[in-house]
Amino acid sequence: MRIVLILKLLLLKIISNEKISILSLIFILFSSVVFSGEVNIFSARHYDSDIELYKKFTLKTGIKVNVVSGKSNALEKRIIEEGTDSKADLYIVADAGTLGAFEAKGMLQSGLTSKIIKSAVPYNYRTSKWVGIAKRARIIYYAPERVTAEELLGLSYESLANPKWKGRLVIRKSNNIYNQSLVASLIKNNGKEKTADWAKGIVANMARTPKGNDRAQILAVAAGEADIAIANTYYLALMLSGKKGEEQKEAAKKVKPFFPNQEDRGTHMNISGVGLVKNSPNKENAIKLVEFLLSEEAQKHIVNNTFEYPMIEGVSPHPLIVSMGLDFKQDSKTEVVNFGKNQTDALEVMLAAGWK
Ligand code: FE
To answer: With 80 as the cut, is the pLDDT of residue 157 above it?
Structure first.
């Protein structure tokens, strides 16, 4: 393709009787070198900052990055339907459960096993087919004037099912993947039967029928509709940053984060991650991009724009995330591969409990 383009350009110049300067020749040849390879990303992460990051990769390597963005369901449908014709190399999403479920459909392949990847990503956050590129915690937010220090003592996901929280809890719907992964991790740790009972307790404690996104849960606590919410860590920082407007910034100041399960396995951690697609036409470039995403430069870019936790050691999260506290125990025992494995059971117990 490139060669044809260069010949056409040269021909045009000759036809137009234009003198071909050495400079223009160099320019034409150079521009053909710049995009000598490419990699195609199907991304369900909606961050403009990700696009800036891919540009940095292109500048570094000369590999062009093409991005198809959309909702995970639509992207997966397209990759499956296009089969061996699919141009997708990498699938990027914001939950380990999504990657696990796509892997279970046989749509990912092994290959993310280089030394760089393995030494960057702890074992519990990767498989040979997909790896985490950033971490997020799903935590508790509370209203300090309505929740006592005593009530917070030793608080865990499990203990949120206690009747003392009746009418005080908000959390989003059961169709939300973050919730499915949280419940999947509870199934892994406590078994399906116990988790089914737990889900009933949670539903009984809800202050309202689940609605809205994670930020809407934090807003409900700020507005006094509930005393505690469950939501991911980066949403509070996003609200505090002012990027979601003055009103949300003020609301965020009214709630406090709490990291549960400090007395046992630690707080539930999830990932943003990337999977190597089964029919990847540019596998080598795809692996290079994954390695780049795990570099110090890329990790700094990610955490400063998305308020996630870095996947690698030695990179500090955004100051707003630091101010929420870093000295909490993360659940590094429950491998995130379980979120996909237990996803069907998780949804089943939630729906059986009447979790809308
Ligand atoms: Fe999110």
So the answer is: yes
Q: Ligand 1 center to residue 34 CA distance, Å?
A: 34
Contact predicate 286/112, CB 8 Å: no
Burial class (CB in 10 A: 0-12, 13-18, 19+), 192: middle
pTM, full prediction: 0.90
Cα 139 to middle of ligand 1, angstroms: 13
Cα-Cα-Cα-Cα torsion 187, 188, 191, 197, nearest 10 degrees, comes to -20
- Look at residue 46 in the predicted model and tell me its pLDDT: 86
- Report CA(352)–ligand 1 centroid distance (Å): 25
pLDDT of res. 3: 44
Q: 43 CA distance to ligand 1 centroid (A)?
A: 13
298 C-alpha vs ligand 1 centroid, how far in Å? 19
Q: What is the pLDDT of residues 212-222, one digit of tens each?
A: 999 999 999 99
Alpha carbon distance 353, 356 (integer Å): 9
Distance of CA 277 from the midpoint of ligand 1 (Å): 22
Q: CATH classification of 136-268+325-352 is 3.40.190.10, yes or no?
A: yes
Domain extents in the chain = 2-135+271-317, 136-268+325-352
Measured CA to CA in angstroms, residue 86 lies from 79, 131, 232 at distances of 6, 21, 33
> May I ask the CATH architecture of the domain 2-135+271-317?
3-Layer(aba) Sandwich (3.40)
Mean pLDDT of the chain: 93
Instruction: With cut-offs at 50, 70 and 90, classify the pLDDT of residue 271.
Output: very high
